[in-house]
What does this fold into?
Amino acid sequence: MKVVMLVKTSKKLYNQSNSKQPIWKMKIKKGIPLIDQHDKNGFYGGKFGGNYVAETLKKPIDDLTKLFEKFRKDKNFLKERDDLYEGYVGRPTRFIKLHNLTDHLGGAQIYAKMVSDANGGAHKIYNAITHAMLCKRAKKKYICTDTGAGYNGKMFSMVAKKFGLGCKVFMGQRDIERQKPNCDAIRKNGAEIIPVTSGSKTLVDAVSECIRYWVSNCDKVHMGIGSLVGPNIFVKICGFSTAQISKELKVQLEDEFGEIPKKLKLINCVGGGSSAYGFWSEFVDYNKNQIEFIGVEAGGSSKSKLHAAPLSKNSKLGVLHGSAAYCIQDADGQINDTESISSGLDYPSVSPIHCLLKDTGRARYTFATDEEALKAYKLVTELEEISPSLEPAHAFVEAIKIAPKLDNSNIIVVDSCGDSLKDRDIIKKHLGNYSR
Amino acid sequence: MISNISSVFKNCRKENRPALLTYIVAGDNTKKKSLEILKSISKYADILEIGFPHNAPTADGPQIQNSSYRALKNGIKLKDVFQIVKNYKNLRNAKPCILMGYYQMVFRYGEKKFVKKCKEVGVDGLIIVDLPWPDNKIFSKLCKKNSITFVQLLSPTTSRERMKKIISDSHDMNYFISMLSTTGGKLKVSPRKIIKNYDKIKKLNKSKNTVIGFGITKKTIKSLKKADGLVVGSALCKGITETLKKRQNPVIKLNKMVKDLKKQIS
It folds into this structure.
């Protein structure tokens, strides 16, 4: 990559500790997709990301990088992908105004981008399609992936079936128990769920186990990571895929308003950060005073100290699953347990790209608790004909919080990136009933 | 001055046998026990690899994962790992020690501070599983400056061109991963094939000591005798698991296991 991320502000600027290290100012370059703004070692902003992998994976990762860089510019590849997005995913997903919620809150106008319309019910389908297409071109017959909420596993199982690939989905035992509808779908598509019983039995362990499986089988199996995390190439493939969301949204905004609104807030939940990246990527170059990005992490239960919000709770930089990012950890470097009602956000680290967006000030990150998410889910589903899963319910919390404080010249768009059906049992348990 | 690690290989060569390297996790299952194990197997092993456990390991098989989780559950911290090494190295006939683990632990501790601490307690070498070449260039130089061997890893997927570069940057020991596997997988390639790959590596530079690891047990160790050194890890961790299940003393079991391994290659 030719992009140089670091801009030296002044040759004479040194920090106060008399270190020989000059102060570098982290900047986002205009006109270049964020996923490509890394240095030759895969670092964003000089310190986020990288490729911390075992030697055995160096070659498979290099091979995958070459393959992706070749095909991302290949007309036939892109045409096949766009046809799949059109006919199979069903694009564009709707962009709708939430009239009742807007009236109820009496402030900013609230819209939703209904990414949950996508075939399978969430944004994870975009990444799964790219991976299946790359897997085919690598002439591999098997694909493996991790899953938390089960959506990524479900999408990989769908595309594996479509492309005739064998598919293994690694999933924490705890998530298998709490996301049954998606597990049923994965099995129905003929994929195998590998229960992961180590550690906290959630997404973090599922990703570790998936990488371990790939270490042993990288000659025959293609691995797809389910979010904007992992070694650099996986961050890039995922971002390249989910960018579809903001490409659609840009057109839809122009259709609705005749231009890109002057005061726009794009609110998205952030676990690993794949949907947030996709929701924002087309708008990165806009001034943040015009288009503000707000990421909402999982604050966990208000009764517990545990959370899954490394950005908004200022966790330290750490190395997990092949890349450096802010990560919930103890003083010794062990990864701490996380807790969230939402499996899809229940991850101790976050994408290196969101670390860059945070440190450059381009995006603002906050968190919502389990209770707030449930309350927001309840309000939104009572007022509107939509049913967001508990992940986007976190984003709705923030929309509900800020909308009354803003006037109606402000436009808020929430990425409703998942459908609630998978959360049926959890919602029933907490709210007494679930109707769809 | 020749390093402790180099002189081990030199002596083994004189005895016409490979060096025996053992791996156990520090603090498995307690700080005290693991020190006792190290002391006890020290009689037969030539180099002791000691794992500093991490709870998100991406390259370990179930046996070493079990050992790591056991140690962590008993509250092992990095400072304890260093203390164990220090106590062991105080023995009169202490063997060279190589610490092995994941980069996150080093990163959190601080690279410089970590290497300094290693030197202080008498660590001879370091294996950082997920810090491959060329990303390890700066860190391996830092190790060298502090007279610590940074062990480079080579795998069956490493191309010849890459191998040449890695070996030219390497110190006095390289580690060849026998097969595509996490640690402790079943040996799914024939020993002959492994030795063939090993020979290719040695051809690139005869003077570099190269050990083979992953999947080596009492049954297979003899067939790999040709190597400069052989690492047994998961089999030993499994030994600890089994004795704990049976409420036996892991020290006695491990002593016997390492003694038997040594017999196979002597």
